[in-house]
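Subject: Type I-C CRISPR-associated protein Cas7/Csd2

B.,
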Amino acid sequence: MIHLDPTRKHDFVFLFDVYDGNPNGDPDAGGMPRTDPETMQGLVTDVAIKRKIRNMVTLLGEGKPGYDIYVEAGVSLNSQHERAYTELGLTEGRAAEISAQQWMCQTFFDVRMFGAVMATGKKTAGRVRGPLQLTFSRSIDPVMPQEHGITRVTRTREDDNKETEMGGKNTIAYGLYRGTGHFSAPLAAKTGVTSEDLSMLWRALTLMFEHDRASGRAEITLRGLYIFTHADAFGTAPARTLTHMVKVERTIPDDLPIRDFTNYKITIDEKSIPNGVIFTRAVG
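Prediction pasted inline below.
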Protein backbone atom coordinates (compact mmCIF):
# COMPACT_ATOMS: atom_id res chain seq x y z
CA MET A 1 0.00 0.00 0.00
CA ILE A 2 1.37 3.34 -1.11
CA HIS A 3 0.77 5.15 2.19
CA LEU A 4 3.16 2.71 3.88
CA ASP A 5 6.11 3.80 1.72
CA PRO A 6 8.67 5.70 3.87
CA THR A 7 10.54 6.88 0.75
CA ARG A 8 7.62 9.17 -0.19
CA LYS A 9 6.32 12.37 1.37
CA HIS A 10 2.94 12.10 3.12
CA ASP A 11 0.57 14.85 4.26
CA PHE A 12 -2.58 14.01 6.16
CA VAL A 13 -5.67 15.41 7.83
CA PHE A 14 -7.40 13.87 10.84
CA LEU A 15 -10.77 14.76 12.35
CA PHE A 16 -12.02 13.86 15.82
CA ASP A 17 -14.90 14.96 17.97
CA VAL A 18 -15.77 15.10 21.65
CA TYR A 19 -19.11 14.96 23.46
CA ASP A 20 -19.43 16.39 26.98
CA GLY A 21 -15.71 16.09 27.67
CA ASN A 22 -12.36 17.81 27.87
CA PRO A 23 -10.05 16.85 24.99
CA ASN A 24 -7.05 18.81 26.30
CA GLY A 25 -7.07 20.70 29.58
CA ASP A 26 -4.97 23.87 29.99
CA PRO A 27 -3.02 23.82 33.29
CA ASP A 28 -2.69 27.62 33.11
CA ALA A 29 -6.49 27.90 33.14
CA GLY A 30 -7.30 25.46 35.93
CA GLY A 31 -7.66 22.52 33.55
CA MET A 32 -10.31 24.15 31.37
CA PRO A 33 -10.45 22.97 27.73
CA ARG A 34 -7.93 24.91 25.64
CA THR A 35 -9.37 27.65 23.45
CA ASP A 36 -8.25 30.41 21.13
CA PRO A 37 -9.32 33.50 23.15
CA GLU A 38 -10.05 35.53 20.00
CA THR A 39 -12.27 33.01 18.19
CA MET A 40 -13.18 30.64 21.05
CA GLN A 41 -12.32 27.69 18.84
CA GLY A 42 -11.09 24.71 20.82
CA LEU A 43 -7.44 23.68 20.65
CA VAL A 44 -5.63 20.40 21.25
CA THR A 45 -1.83 20.52 21.28
CA ASP A 46 0.42 18.38 19.14
CA VAL A 47 2.02 17.14 22.38
CA ALA A 48 -1.34 15.74 23.53
CA ILE A 49 -1.82 13.83 20.26
CA LYS A 50 1.75 12.51 20.35
CA ARG A 51 1.15 11.26 23.89
CA LYS A 52 -1.87 9.27 22.72
CA ILE A 53 0.11 7.84 19.79
CA ARG A 54 2.94 6.85 22.15
CA ASN A 55 0.50 5.16 24.52
CA MET A 56 -1.08 3.24 21.67
CA VAL A 57 2.28 2.13 20.27
CA THR A 58 3.15 0.86 23.75
CA LEU A 59 0.10 -1.41 23.58
CA LEU A 60 0.43 -2.45 19.95
CA GLY A 61 4.18 -2.94 20.02
CA GLU A 62 4.54 -4.64 23.38
CA GLY A 63 7.44 -7.07 23.26
CA LYS A 64 8.43 -6.08 19.70
CA PRO A 65 12.04 -4.91 19.23
CA GLY A 66 12.21 -1.31 18.03
CA TYR A 67 8.91 -0.22 19.58
CA ASP A 68 10.04 1.00 22.97
CA ILE A 69 8.94 4.53 23.90
CA TYR A 70 11.53 7.15 24.86
CA VAL A 71 9.20 9.73 26.46
CA GLU A 72 7.52 7.49 28.99
CA ALA A 73 5.76 8.45 32.21
CA GLY A 74 7.87 7.86 35.29
CA VAL A 75 11.11 7.17 33.38
CA SER A 76 13.87 9.77 33.27
CA LEU A 77 15.25 10.62 29.84
CA ASN A 78 18.85 10.35 31.01
CA SER A 79 18.24 6.77 32.09
CA GLN A 80 17.10 6.02 28.54
CA HIS A 81 20.40 7.38 27.15
CA GLU A 82 22.30 5.28 29.68
CA ARG A 83 20.59 2.18 28.29
CA ALA A 84 22.34 2.80 24.98
CA TYR A 85 25.74 3.23 26.61
CA THR A 86 25.29 0.10 28.71
CA GLU A 87 23.98 -1.99 25.82
CA LEU A 88 26.83 -0.97 23.51
CA GLY A 89 29.57 -0.77 26.16
CA LEU A 90 30.30 2.87 25.31
CA THR A 91 32.34 5.48 27.11
CA GLU A 92 31.93 9.23 26.79
CA GLY A 93 32.94 11.16 23.65
CA ARG A 94 31.68 12.18 20.21
CA ALA A 95 32.03 8.69 18.68
CA ALA A 96 30.09 7.21 21.59
CA GLU A 97 27.37 9.84 21.16
CA ILE A 98 26.93 8.95 17.48
CA SER A 99 26.71 5.22 18.26
CA ALA A 100 24.24 5.91 21.07
CA GLN A 101 22.09 8.04 18.77
CA GLN A 102 21.87 5.24 16.20
CA TRP A 103 20.88 2.79 18.94
CA MET A 104 18.21 5.18 20.23
CA CYS A 105 16.71 5.50 16.75
CA GLN A 106 16.65 1.73 16.31
CA THR A 107 15.19 1.07 19.76
CA PHE A 108 12.60 3.83 20.29
CA PHE A 109 9.67 4.35 17.92
CA ASP A 110 9.09 7.94 19.05
CA VAL A 111 12.74 8.91 18.54
CA ARG A 112 12.60 7.47 15.01
CA MET A 113 9.29 9.14 14.21
CA PHE A 114 9.12 12.37 16.26
CA GLY A 115 12.79 13.06 16.93
CA ALA A 116 14.28 13.98 20.31
CA VAL A 117 16.80 16.22 22.03
CA MET A 118 19.01 13.80 23.92
CA ALA A 119 21.80 16.18 24.89
CA THR A 120 21.41 16.29 28.69
CA GLY A 121 23.62 14.56 31.23
CA LYS A 122 27.07 13.06 30.68
CA LYS A 123 25.91 10.17 28.50
CA THR A 124 24.23 11.97 25.63
CA ALA A 125 22.87 10.88 22.27
CA GLY A 126 22.69 14.26 20.52
CA ARG A 127 19.69 15.66 18.71
CA VAL A 128 17.49 13.80 16.22
CA ARG A 129 15.13 15.67 13.90
CA GLY A 130 12.10 13.46 13.38
CA PRO A 131 10.26 13.09 10.06
CA LEU A 132 6.74 13.45 11.49
CA GLN A 133 5.35 16.83 12.52
CA LEU A 134 1.83 17.44 13.84
CA THR A 135 -0.06 20.72 14.12
CA PHE A 136 -2.31 21.89 16.93
CA SER A 137 -5.82 20.59 16.28
CA ARG A 138 -8.51 23.28 16.11
CA SER A 139 -12.28 22.94 16.39
CA ILE A 140 -14.30 23.84 13.31
CA ASP A 141 -16.66 26.06 15.30
CA PRO A 142 -16.33 27.93 18.62
CA VAL A 143 -16.76 25.88 21.79
CA MET A 144 -18.05 26.93 25.19
CA PRO A 145 -15.95 25.57 28.10
CA GLN A 146 -17.99 24.94 31.25
CA GLU A 147 -17.08 24.00 34.79
CA HIS A 148 -19.48 21.59 36.48
CA GLY A 149 -19.56 21.39 40.26
CA ILE A 150 -19.34 17.85 41.64
CA THR A 151 -19.99 16.68 45.20
CA ARG A 152 -18.95 13.43 46.82
CA VAL A 153 -20.39 11.93 49.98
CA THR A 154 -17.13 11.09 51.71
CA ARG A 155 -14.24 12.75 53.49
CA THR A 156 -10.57 12.86 52.62
CA ARG A 157 -9.36 13.05 56.25
CA GLU A 158 -10.73 11.46 59.42
CA ASP A 159 -10.62 14.76 61.28
CA ASP A 160 -12.61 16.57 58.59
CA ASN A 161 -16.08 17.50 59.83
CA LYS A 162 -17.51 18.18 56.38
CA GLU A 163 -20.19 15.72 55.26
CA THR A 164 -19.39 16.21 51.57
CA GLU A 165 -16.54 17.56 49.47
CA MET A 166 -16.77 19.67 46.34
CA GLY A 167 -14.93 19.14 43.12
CA GLY A 168 -15.39 20.06 39.50
CA LYS A 169 -15.18 18.82 35.93
CA ASN A 170 -14.44 20.95 32.90
CA THR A 171 -16.08 20.11 29.59
CA ILE A 172 -17.36 21.33 26.28
CA ALA A 173 -20.75 20.12 25.04
CA TYR A 174 -19.48 19.21 21.57
CA GLY A 175 -16.59 19.98 19.27
CA LEU A 176 -15.26 18.63 15.98
CA TYR A 177 -11.51 19.15 15.72
CA ARG A 178 -9.24 19.15 12.70
CA GLY A 179 -5.49 18.49 12.76
CA THR A 180 -2.84 17.96 10.10
CA GLY A 181 0.41 16.01 9.94
CA HIS A 182 3.40 15.95 7.63
CA PHE A 183 5.89 13.14 7.01
CA SER A 184 9.30 13.92 5.48
CA ALA A 185 10.91 11.03 3.60
CA PRO A 186 14.46 12.49 3.61
CA LEU A 187 14.35 12.83 7.41
CA ALA A 188 12.82 9.36 7.71
CA ALA A 189 15.81 7.90 5.84
CA LYS A 190 18.12 9.43 8.45
CA THR A 191 16.25 7.98 11.44
CA GLY A 192 15.52 4.59 9.85
CA VAL A 193 11.72 4.68 9.57
CA THR A 194 10.33 1.55 7.89
CA SER A 195 7.06 0.56 6.22
CA GLU A 196 6.20 -1.29 9.43
CA ASP A 197 6.68 1.96 11.35
CA LEU A 198 4.24 3.79 9.07
CA SER A 199 1.76 0.96 9.44
CA MET A 200 2.12 1.29 13.21
CA LEU A 201 1.63 5.07 13.00
CA TRP A 202 -1.61 4.89 11.00
CA ARG A 203 -2.99 2.13 13.23
CA ALA A 204 -2.06 4.04 16.38
CA LEU A 205 -3.82 7.13 15.01
CA THR A 206 -7.00 5.19 14.29
CA LEU A 207 -7.05 3.59 17.76
CA MET A 208 -5.55 6.31 19.97
CA PHE A 209 -8.87 7.49 21.42
CA GLU A 210 -10.30 3.99 21.80
CA HIS A 211 -7.80 3.13 24.55
CA ASP A 212 -7.58 6.56 26.20
CA ARG A 213 -10.99 6.60 27.87
CA ALA A 214 -11.50 8.56 31.08
CA SER A 215 -14.49 10.26 32.67
CA GLY A 216 -13.56 13.52 30.94
CA ARG A 217 -12.67 11.81 27.66
CA ALA A 218 -15.27 9.08 27.45
CA GLU A 219 -16.69 10.16 24.10
CA ILE A 220 -13.81 11.17 21.84
CA THR A 221 -13.89 9.53 18.41
CA LEU A 222 -11.68 9.67 15.34
CA ARG A 223 -13.99 10.65 12.49
CA GLY A 224 -11.57 10.83 9.60
CA LEU A 225 -7.99 10.13 8.52
CA TYR A 226 -7.14 11.29 5.01
CA ILE A 227 -3.64 10.68 3.62
CA PHE A 228 -2.06 12.34 0.57
CA THR A 229 0.99 10.45 -0.68
CA HIS A 230 3.39 12.16 -3.09
CA ALA A 231 5.20 10.60 -6.03
CA ASP A 232 8.63 11.14 -4.51
CA ALA A 233 10.47 12.06 -1.33
CA PHE A 234 10.20 15.83 -1.74
CA GLY A 235 6.59 16.34 -2.79
CA THR A 236 4.74 17.05 -6.00
CA ALA A 237 2.31 19.67 -4.60
CA PRO A 238 2.24 22.08 -1.63
CA ALA A 239 0.96 20.42 1.52
CA ARG A 240 -1.56 23.17 2.18
CA THR A 241 -3.10 22.71 -1.26
CA LEU A 242 -3.74 19.05 -0.48
CA THR A 243 -4.94 19.33 3.11
CA HIS A 244 -7.40 22.09 2.15
CA MET A 245 -9.13 19.63 -0.17
CA VAL A 246 -10.67 18.11 2.95
CA LYS A 247 -13.61 20.42 3.60
CA VAL A 248 -15.88 20.49 6.65
CA GLU A 249 -19.19 22.35 6.32
CA ARG A 250 -22.15 22.87 8.62
CA THR A 251 -25.45 21.27 7.66
CA ILE A 252 -27.51 23.37 10.10
CA PRO A 253 -28.08 27.15 10.28
CA ASP A 254 -25.31 29.29 11.76
CA ASP A 255 -27.52 30.44 14.64
CA LEU A 256 -27.98 26.89 15.97
CA PRO A 257 -25.41 25.26 18.27
CA ILE A 258 -23.46 22.28 16.94
CA ARG A 259 -24.21 19.22 19.05
CA ASP A 260 -23.53 16.21 16.82
CA PHE A 261 -21.23 14.96 14.06
CA THR A 262 -24.24 14.78 11.73
CA ASN A 263 -24.39 18.59 11.91
CA TYR A 264 -21.41 18.58 9.53
CA LYS A 265 -20.72 17.35 6.00
CA ILE A 266 -17.21 16.17 5.08
CA THR A 267 -16.19 16.36 1.42
CA ILE A 268 -12.89 15.70 -0.37
CA ASP A 269 -12.27 17.27 -3.77
CA GLU A 270 -10.62 14.17 -5.21
CA LYS A 271 -10.97 15.35 -8.82
CA SER A 272 -8.63 18.26 -8.12
CA ILE A 273 -5.85 16.19 -6.59
CA PRO A 274 -2.68 16.89 -8.64
CA ASN A 275 -1.10 14.22 -10.80
CA GLY A 276 1.43 12.19 -8.87
CA VAL A 277 -0.44 12.43 -5.57
CA ILE A 278 -2.36 9.38 -4.35
CA PHE A 279 -5.22 9.83 -1.89
CA THR A 280 -6.04 7.25 0.79
CA ARG A 281 -9.16 7.47 2.92
CA ALA A 282 -7.95 5.48 5.94
CA VAL A 283 -10.94 6.44 8.12
CA GLY A 284 -14.12 8.32 7.22
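Residues 1-45+136-284 form one domain.

T.
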